[in-house]
Amino acid sequence: MAIDLVSKLCANCGTVVDFGAGPGLFLHTLGEARPDVTLIGHDRFMVPAFPEVKYAESLDSVASSSVDVFTAFEVCEHLYDHELDALLSDAARILKPNSAFVISVPIMYGLAIGPKVSNWMIRSRSLKSEYSPAELFKAMVGIRVSRPENPRTTHKGFDFRELRDVVSRHFVIDATQMSPLPIAPWWMSLQFFMICRPKSTA
Fold it and tell me: What is the pLDDT of residues 89-113, one digit of tens each?
């Protein structure tokens, strides 16, 4: 879904910057589909693995109004508030006027929360859950659950609706989409995608 979205949004010979790019697999795969695109990744914690992907040590080194599509896939849920504010400011600076900012985050509320918590317990080989039974029920019916102080290694309590509200103060949210089934309501979905546009072009 991410490859398809970005490939359609990016202009010919455009530039895509991926925040939290990891080793660069997304950009590498995008480059196979769109060899005309300039690929730039940024990740503070991972080493690049694909030579065709350029890496920026910081977004400060990316020129203003130079990017056609800026992506942040499955990273916003791990940011502190001040880091999210910095990310949104950087995005507004580096994006071209007719560009797109594409965000995806996990949905930690609704029917998906039970399987997600169970999967986490299986993968960590633990019978203990981050969620109390009361918190699990609240999350299942869409009631907000408090987040841990450190968001780096957990999705607990992350609410895509709060992120959507924050992003909407900085960008125009042009479209939203659920995954894996775009037509499903959010409470039956696993991921939430936003396609955002700079407000100056609204």
Answer: 999 999 999 899 999 999 999 999 9
- Rounded to 5 degrees, what angle do the CA atoms 27, 32, 37 make? 65
The per-residue DSSP string of 143-184 comes to ---PPPS--TT--TT--HHHHHHHHHTTEEEEEEEEES-TTS
If one counts every other C-beta atom within 10 angstroms of the C-beta of residue 108, the result is: 22
d(CA 68, CA 75): 20
Q: How far apart are the first and last CA of the chain?
A: 25
Q: What Rg, from alpha-carbon coordinates, does the chain have?
A: 17
What sections of 10-123 are H helices per DSSP?
25-33, 81-94, 113-123
Nearest in space to 48 (alpha carbons), one of 89, 7, 20, 75? 20
Domain boundary assignment for the chain = 2-106+158-201, 109-157
Distances in Å between the Cα of 65 and the Cα atoms of 40, 62, 79, 97, 120 are: 15, 9, 24, 7, 40
Closest by CA to 94, choosing from 3, 27, 32, 14, is 14
Tokens 């995608």 found at: 193
CATH topology for 2-106+158-201 is Rossmann fold (3.40.50)
What's the whole-model pTM score?
0.93
CB atoms within 10 A of CB 186: 17
